[in-house]
User: Fold these one by one.
Assistant:
Number 1:
Amino acid sequence: MNIKKAFETLIAKPIATLIAKPYAKQLLSGLLALVIVLPVVIVGIVHLTKTTKDAPPTETTLQTTLENTTPESTTPEETTPEETTTPPPVITIPDEFMEKFPTYDGDGITEDNVLVRVNIVTGPTENEIYAGEELAKYLTQKGVAVEDGGFPIFVYQDGLISEDGFSVSATLHGDDACMRIRGGNGRGVIYGVYKFLEEYAGVRYFTPTLEVVSESDIVLRDGNLLAFSPYFEMRRLSWHTVGTSSDWCAKNGINAHDGQESEVYGGKILYGSGLFVHTLGALSEYDGNNNGKADGSDPNPCLTSEEVYQTVLKNLRVKLEADPTVDIVSVSQNDNNTYCKCESCAASDAKYGFPSGTMLAFVNRIAEELEADYPNLVIDTLAYNYTQAAPTGIVPRHNVCVRVCSIRVCFMHPMTECNDAKGPNNVAWTKTHDFLTDLLDWGKICDRIYVWDYTTNFAYYIAPFSNFGSIRENMRLYYEHGVRGMFPQGNGQSISGEFGELRSYLLAKLMWNPLMTEEEYYTHMDEFLKAYYGEGWEGIRAFIDLTTELAGNADSCINIYEAPLNSITAEEYLQYEEQIEAWWNTAEALAGDRLEYVKRSRLQWRYIQLLLHPNDEACAQFVADVNSYGIRWAESPKNNKPLNEMFTNLYPVGGAGGDGPQDGQDPMNP
């Protein structure tokens, strides 16, 4: 029976006969509705029963390598995510790949889905080719052969994926057997490769000079392996050890840094030269200090002056014409609280409620003027000190970004738990509650908020800064309150004598996944500690736990310029001194080839001991050791002085004396 005759006999004639019956139309309508609705209901039920089991994994949920890692093992024993039955996604391979689809002999994957042989095919760009080379390099280290006939892996850009995002999926068997690493842009491609290696191959990128590649097998599965879209659109680090390493930043998802710009990494978010922060002095050419050079330390110019506006606009255009590839420029106040209070500026401040309104009106005008010539350019400004509070009656333009600065926050307690208690010297310096209020208020009027956070003690770089109990919860808070970019500033001036390398690694992980659990956070920490410090790492972890607990239990709130014995008192250190000394001694004894790392991080404990037990000879040796590493004592030149010159009440012969951290806040009165 042909198709036409079958249709007439089995469908058309019976329907015609039925329609002729009474009430047939109502009956037929009901049947048709049932036919339409029933499949939808069935599909919905099936979907609900499969959602939890079969939902495509995301970067947040695919933490198997970390979940399976214990303090006894730096790298995971098992790198395969939990089996699911997610069907292979339907993805169209670009035509240029189809033309050179490699011959696969079927022996690239074992019966247990272990990857043993691959053939890597990349897109044509420098970035895609480099991503393929990096994949081949690490797979070779894992013992996977890279050769013709192996399991095909395609590495390429796909405009359907979000910027900096990526997708990794696989079809293990059949004519279409292959794996696809697709990135939304150049950075997305390189991130996809490095994160696949991290999640499935047990590779860790701890510092620019320390990586670990596990010996475990790479076990694949059908379907989606990884899918990621960034939580924060800008992720910047400035810690000295990592902030200038383009390679480390690419491996850890940092897309804004001070390293070399390179297309092999997919580029970076680029600020214009000299246009990162505190720019109004140079842009306005206003030399309020009459020191012959307008810069970020000068008093701020008049923002209602047409002459100032035109000068700033002119100088911005000169810089943009010299480098039109920049992504963002800062039109931001100088680094002081001296701002114009002329009649016109005062009236503008009153109109908008705060000086931030006058600043925003100025920045909005600049952004509007430049948009026609630079449609993709973002103009940023600061919400910092006198501009921290959000204005009323004005909103940022769509091409304006506001960087809210947390400089007056307590960093020992999570912000949601902090009560802004006075410090040990009875000074209420922190204003965490005000900052949270201002952050929420800015969020009501601005859809592009970045946060400039602070993650070290800028007056005492070497002393312990026990913020490990707060940085995870604060990062989550920022994301949950709509922040789109993060810059957790650290010691960018020298190598660390504290825990700068560990903190850099953890901050990179938190910017990549601000919703990680406490267990995931401390797993990252333990992996780093064991790899970086050697077999005695557990004593160092115990020191971190103790100092974090003591600082967190303090009745006072600590800022980023606090003297070393404020967050944790001398009495508390003395109570645990014997145990702390034993931890560090054991760490040194078991360090092996990590001894230099242990000794350098131990400087923070030696620093405290020299405050607890002043000793001229021991202090002289300590100063020599610090200088031999090239470690700075503090950010500001006035405080960048050896311990014996800062604490002249303890070391009266040590030097001419120091100026203290800021505003005479040091209770030891150096």
Note: The radius of gyration is 30 Å.
Number 2:
Amino acid sequence: MTDLLATSAGTWRDNDAGNLSYVERLKPVGHGSLRERWRHFRQRFEERRNHAEEYHKSLEHLHRNLPIASSAQMREFMTQLLREKRWFIALLLVLNAVAALLGLTIPRVLGSIIDRASGGDSTLAAQLLGLCLAVVALAVGHSVFTYLANLASAVLGQRILAESREQVVDYVLQLPLSRVEQASTGDLVTRITRDVSVLAETLRWALPRVLMASVSVVATLVASLINSWLLGLASIVGVGYLLYSGRWYLRHAPAGYLVAGQAFSQINSTLAETVEGARTVEALQLDDMRVEKGDGDVALAAQAERYTATLRNYLYLNADVVFNGPLALVVLMGGWGYMNGLVSLGQITVAVLYVQMLVEPQDQLMQLLNRVQNAEAAARRLLGIKAVEPDRQATDAEPQGTELIGKNLRFAYRENRDVLHGIDLELQPGERVAVVGPSGSGKSTLSRLLAGINRPRTGVVTVGGTDVMDLPLSRLRTEVALVTQEHHVFVGSIRDNIILAREDAEDEAVWRALDAVGASGWVQRLPDQLATKVGSGNHALTPGQAQQIALARLVIADPHTLVLDEATSLIDPATARHLEGAITALLSGRTVVAIAHRLHTAHDADRIVVIIDGKIAESGSHDELLAAGGEYAHLWRVWTS
């Protein structure tokens, strides 16, 4: 233990030191020749790339943070998402293909006019008006089908967006609570905010446009070859070089964007820790240290952004070559081909127009490639939530009774460091048990095991003879429910917040629950009573009122066993005593496990269990334990002195 304490304080400092060293090495050199600056730029780029690839390789070894899905899992997710919309995607492709065909026909008409004019066709003048009207009709048709394709694209994007959002919500809600608490707060927050936004924007807008732009490029290439295989080679070369550049970009970009996502997660984690521990930071004068850590996180994020920006600049530089190179090739090859009788002036004109028509869809693909890479990184981080192994395997077993029993319970938050040491606890139906002990003794950990939130390292917790970890959560919460000192008020009415546990509950039952927890008085004084909107941006509740809402929710749920982990810690002592008394009276015949520092809870209990250093030190009634003169008697004397 002494060695652990001696080294734990420096753990994060070691990491910060490594990060600062990495950032220092990447500072640009402000002097030297152009060649030296270029060499230093290459060195910085290589170091950033190595850093990104090392992080990418290390993902499978990260146990504390939430995992990141593989590229194969991401492609499977997208394939399944698109397969469900295959008929709509087919409609989108057909509409875009027709629009592209109509648009590509216009240059062919113009090319034929030029060839006929240069060849001295005497019938051209009489047909010119008809040809012009045909061009206008083709342009109108092209606009109509482009509009329909854009409309189908918008509908497809919104449908995919809606389904993907629903799936992400399902993934988050299925995440085991024990795993959530293990992971970094900033990591999870970044995934369900920034990553969801990035993926949503790509699915809604970028993905349909990638499909449309790809159809336009393929159709234009085919039309170029039909017009002239010689001149069409220029477009083929341009698109081929674009594919080569894109492949190089795609080989390096995923690691860069994953590092950038992790960097933003770290910024959020540091910020959340600093805000939540603001009083501690101020009391211990850690302001400068926390600011320095935040600056270091921002510096790391900046290096990640610089790496991805360099990749994008390389891609855009090649894009300029792709956009302008084929045009020069068409002019050169066209001039040579015309002099040798291989192509006509009309074909050269059509080829030039096709090269120009390729610019817009290619530019869209280049711009969207960056969005797609961002979205791929976001999708892999979000799918990583789905990859978390469930903490329970539900079976068809049904509890045969209401007895809650824990046998040989051991639990460790860190390997080989148990915080509970072989606890045996048997609760009889209707019994009121108080669990007391000093802070850090393992009371809250025991409550989580009894409520089936965490699986014990050894031993088992059963309800009615069935392992609580074998019950689906929805079934378990009708048997055992945990209420902690932490609480949450959802955005919505007071009624909505209370009936979450039983949505078919009538207003009469809601009022009874509020009355049971001593909250009916202040709710009746609200302008809209049960319909009053609470939560972020609405009527503000005090911490005590919010906890009363949480307890009323528990009364509505009506499980046969309640585990109250310091549930009244945020309410003043007088209200807390009245509240616990009301709950005890209301839930007569149900098992209640109350964990609290306020020993008046223990005074009212049928049995008191004293936890010291993860072991049961004493067990008995209030009078029995006072007479024994042990740990409980000492705690009682301290409490009442």
Note: The first strand starts at residue 404 and ends at 414.
